[in-house]
Amino acid sequence: MCLIAYERGQTNIKYANPDNPLWAYINITDQCNKFCGFCFNKNNFKPDLALSKFIIILDKLKNMKIKQVTLSGGEPTLHPDIKEMLTLTKELGMRTHLATNGLEDDLILYLDKFKLIDQIQFNWGIDSYKEQLLVINRIKNSRVAVTIPGAKDNVDNLQELIINASKANIDKIRIWELCGAGEAKNSISIQEYDSIASKLIPREYSFKQSYDPEISADLFIPCIIASGVVLYINSAGEILRCMAEINSPVIANILKDPVKTILEKYKKYVAALPKRCFARNEGSSTS
């Protein structure tokens, strides 16, 4: 499992072994205003997703009965149409999730004020979390999560990161192994990382074998794409095997293929996957 979580409170969706994907993770831009060593997307540059194409994608996701949409990147707050994208997603009744580095604080607070985001995920590093806390402490309407990637500096300072997340009343603390797609040479395995974290997590948090943003059931599979829960969609409309994998195989194209064809291709592809993580080297084992 490359992502696990400790959570305060309850989420709304509890689902295991789904018949259809529940969640769409969309990279709307590959632009970014930071240069994080753990980034898995810096080698996957494509042009921004146009609003007109996002509307087509959203309509198809609604027909697929997708329940939640993550906007990511790059840094999604740099996309010029992010307000419209979130507004349209909410109008269709889907939960919204934003994965951000938190630097565009005025925009984030605007989106929160108008209740356009159900959950905001901040990627925390020991060198940047204090700056992010300034905006986190001003958020009123959105649930807040932090993901702590397993970079060596974070591992060495994990206690400080967790203590400050708890003090800020952050709902969910996620622990993320670097799966070999970013600069993961100083990372450790998720088992080791979680073993360290579990000793530091405050008691008000409960363990969840969890995925973003609202699925909290244990899917019993160590790879999220192999679980059949999520559609990873890049800004070209390609549905990828894994967003954290450089040169990931393409399963379908949501802009070109009809909904029925997409679901058929996706289910067939997922059913044939060995239940392991593809962001690691092909010959390595998984948790």
Radius of gyration: 18 Å
The strand line-up of the biggest sheet is 8-1-7-6-5-4-3-2-9-10-11
How many structural domains can be distinguished in the coordinates?
1
Mean pLDDT: 83
Strand percentage lies at: 15-25%
Biggest sheet features: 11 strands, mixed
> Distance between the terminal alpha carbons, to the nearest Å?
6 Å
Poorly predicted regions are 281-287
Q: What characteristic shape results from the CA principal axes?
A: globular
Features:
globular; 287 residues; 8 helices; single chain; TIM Barrel; 18% strand; alpha/beta; disordered C terminus
Description of the molecule:
Strands 8-1-7-6-5-4-3-2-9-10-11 form an 11-stranded mixed sheet. The longest helix is centred in the N-terminal third of the chain and has 13 residues, at 51-63. The chain is an alpha/beta fold. It has a single domain, classed as Aldolase class I (TIM Barrel, Alpha-Beta Barrel), CATH 3.20.20. Helix content is 27%, strand content 18%. Helix 1 (51-63) packs parallel to helix 2. It has helices at residues 51-63, 82-91, 105-113, 129-136, 152-156, 158-167, 190-198, 259-271, and strands spanning 3-7, 23-27, 68-72, 95-100, 119-123, 143-149, 172-176, 206-208, 230-233, 238-240, 250-253.
Task: Describe how the helices and strands are arranged.
Elements: E1 3-7, E2 23-27, H1 51-63, E3 68-72, H2 82-91, E4 95-100, H3 105-113, E5 119-123, H4 129-136, E6 143-149, H5 152-156, H6 158-167, E7 172-176, H7 190-198, E8 206-208, E9 230-233, E10 238-240, E11 250-253, H8 259-271
Parallel strand pairs: 2-3, 2-9, 3-4, 4-5, 5-6, 6-7
Antiparallel strand pairs: 1-7, 1-8, 9-10, 10-11
